[in-house]
Amino acid sequence: MIDQIKSYLNEVQSFHSTSPQEIENFRIRFLGKKGLLNSLFVEFKNVPNTEKKEIGQQINTLKNAINEKIQELKSQSTESQQNSNKTDLTLPAENEPVGSRHPVSIVRNQICEIFNKIGFTIAEGPEIENDWHLFSGLNFPPEHPARDMQDTFFIEKNPDIMLRTHTSSVQIRVMQSGKPPLRQIFPGRVFRNEAISARSHCIFHQVEGLYIDENVSFADLKQTLVFFAREMFGMDSKIRLRPSYFPFTEPSAEMDVSCTICNGTGCNICKYTGWLEILGCGMVDPNVLDNTGISSEQYTGFAFGMGIERIALLKYQIKDIRILFENDIRFLHQFSGTI
Ligand code: DAH
Question: 103-335 belongs to which homologous superfamily?
Answer without folding.
Answer: Bira Bifunctional Protein; Domain 2 (3.30.930.10)
